[in-house]
């Protein structure tokens, strides 16, 4: 049930920079609050896919992305009010508190000011004492009429270290409530890989990790004081169209460790507009059922499963026959690569893929592609696909994050024309061949106007 505006209270957990421990402490808070029966909803600022999966594992409930740059205000409002009326939203910030798409624009601080949800700052105190007070003062005074309401010091040493931090914080920012001192814990590090943390489903002992994080929070953070700082949502909104138009009436969605990067709000929008969603696993060599009129291959880690995917004959045959009968086949990032002719893995071995689009990609020589993107549908792509994604010139906002390179691409119709967050033109993006289409861009929301 959707909560009304003003009833949804929330808090945002932020930090001066990435690597301060905000994800682990957020997971500990979510897990502990779930254990003691508090009504909570979790959210993640920005476009990240991996942290929300950990949130879901901690609470057993969906986690929603809140993206101030990519989402229309109406969609941002819809996401923020998806929880029950009595739930408190615990939102994990992204990067440093003031880091945004362009300088400070669309930062976690901006999200806090738009939503009205206060910020609790996590400061990594591992290699500092009194200097942590200067960090706190800086973040409390950097922006006029904006300050964190609470602080948690992370990776704290002994009693003396704790005492130094407390005195420094009181002297530097007396109005910011000290909520806890969390000791160093070498057992609570999340493993990562080239696109960030490993996926939650791959964590060797996730339940033990989450319970240990909850135990750390219970012992070292004043939970009652923390929850008392939550404030009502001040954002308002109205009825809006789905972020992305449904690809069809019956949509088959690839869903496993190779294809897991998708947004809950996208699928919710498709269901709201009457689409039927069916999930299948390419890694188990499952094919989309023959009665679907659309197939969605989200991003993920196909590069880690090249051999299995190339050997999944039912899956590949299902893609090809769906394309032959005129079904829409749409791939994003990893899904886009699988629609190509072949993929070279990190060891330099070539694996044949579906061959539905004229490109070949490689991880043998990795190159980072990262950033927000605004894309515009190409006229010829729209004509060939029947306007599945929208009319010519329709714009979307999303993001790009991958290390793949295109080592061979034949001439073809681009799906999009791409721009960075500052509006600088990046050139064509993706490919479209009839109703088969894809790109490296993860679409988040359409852009009005």
What are its keywords?
8-stranded mixed β-sheet; alpha/beta; 25 strands; 449 residues; 6-stranded mixed β-sheet; 28% helix; Rossmann fold
SSE blueprint and pairings:
Layout: E1 9-14, H1 22-35, E2 40-45, H2 50-59, E3 63-66, H3 73-80, E4 88-92, H4 108-115, E5 119-124, H5 131-141, E6 150-156, H6 159-172, E7 177-183, E8 192-193, E9 196-197, H7 206-220, H8 223-228, E10 231-232, E11 250-254, H9 264-272, E12 276-280, E13 294-297, H10 306-311, H11 313-324, E14 328-332, H12 334-339, E15 342-344, E16 350-352, E17 359-362, E18 369-377, H13 379-385, E19 395-402, E20 405-409, E21 416-420, E22 425-429, E23 431-433, E24 436-439, E25 442-447
Parallel strand pairs: 1-4, 1-5, 2-3, 2-4, 5-6, 6-7, 11-12, 11-13, 13-14, 14-24, 15-17
Antiparallel strand pairs: 1-10, 8-9, 15-16, 17-20, 18-19, 18-21, 19-25, 21-22, 23-24
The number of helical elements comes to 13
Q: CATH superfamily membership of the largest domain, which one? A: P-loop containing nucleotide triphosphate hydrolases
Top-tier CATH class of the largest domain:
Alpha Beta
Query: Whole-Å distance between the termini?
Result: 30 Å
Global shape: elongated
- In percent terms, what proportion of residues is strand? 25-35%
Number of strands: 25
What Rg is obtained from the alpha carbons, in whole angstroms? 23 Å
Q: How much helicity do the residues have? A: 25-40%
Instruction: Give the CATH architecture of the largest domain.
Output: 3-Layer(aba) Sandwich
Model regions low in confidence, pLDDT < 50 over at least 5 residues: none
**Number of separate domains:** 2
CATH topology-level fold name of the largest domain: Rossmann fold
Nearest-integer average pLDDT: 93
Structural class: alpha/beta
Largest sheet: 8 strands, mixed
């Amino acid at each position: 049930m959707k909560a009304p505006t003003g009833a949804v209270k929330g808090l945002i957990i932020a930090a001066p920079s990435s690597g301060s421990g905000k994800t682990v402490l957020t997971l500990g808070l979510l897990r502990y609050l779930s254990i003691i029966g508090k009504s909570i909803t979790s959210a993640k600022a920005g476009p990240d896919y991996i942290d929300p999966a950990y949130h879901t594992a901690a609470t057993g409930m969906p986690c929603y992305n809140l993206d101030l740059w990519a989402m229309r205000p109406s969609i941002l409002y819809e996401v923020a009010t998806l929880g029950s009326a009595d739930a408190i939203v615990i939102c994990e910030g992204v990067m440093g508190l003031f880091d945004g798409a362009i300088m400070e624009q669309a930062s976690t601080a901006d999200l806090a000011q738009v939503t009205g949800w206060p910020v609790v700052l996590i400061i990594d105190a591992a290699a500092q004492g009194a200097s942590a007070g200067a960090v706190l003062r800086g973040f409390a005074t950097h922006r006029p009429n904006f300050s964190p309401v609470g602080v948690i010091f992370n990776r704290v040493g002994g009693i003396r270290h704790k005492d130094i931090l407390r005195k420094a914080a009181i002297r530097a920012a007396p109005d910011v409530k000290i909520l806890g001192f969390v000791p160093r814990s070498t057992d609570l590090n999340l493993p990562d890989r080239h696109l960030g943390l490993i996926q939650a489903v791959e964590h060797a002992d996730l339940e033990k990790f989450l319970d240990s994080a909850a135990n750390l929070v219970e012992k070292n953070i004043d939970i009652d004081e923390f929850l008392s700082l939550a404030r009502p949502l001040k954002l308002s909104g109205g009825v809006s169209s789905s972020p992305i138009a449904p690809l069809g009436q019956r949509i088959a969605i690839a869903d496993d460790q190779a294809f897991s990067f998708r947004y809950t709000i996208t699928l919710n929008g498709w269901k709201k507009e009457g689409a039927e969603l069916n999930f299948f696993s390419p890694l188990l060599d499952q094919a989309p059922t023959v009665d679907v009129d659309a197939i969605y291959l989200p991003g993920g880690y196909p590069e880690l499963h090249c051999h299995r995917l190339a050997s999944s004959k039912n899956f590949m045959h299902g893609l090809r026959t769906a394309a032959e009968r005129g079904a829409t086949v749409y791939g994003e990032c990893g899904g886009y690569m699988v629609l190509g002719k072949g993929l070279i893995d990190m060891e330099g071995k070539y694996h044949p893929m579906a061959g539905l689009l004229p490109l070949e990609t490689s991880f043998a020589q990795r190159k980072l592609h990262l950033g927000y993107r605004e894309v515009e549908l190409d006229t010829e792509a729209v004509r060939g696909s029947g306007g599945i994604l929208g009319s010519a010139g329709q714009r979307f906002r999303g993001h790009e994050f991958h290390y793949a390179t295109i080592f061979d691409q034949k001439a073809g119709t681009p799906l999009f024309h791409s721009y960075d967050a500052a509006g600088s033109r990046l050139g064509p993006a993706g490919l479209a061949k009839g109703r088969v289409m894809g790109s490296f861009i993860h679409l988040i929301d359409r852009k009005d106007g």
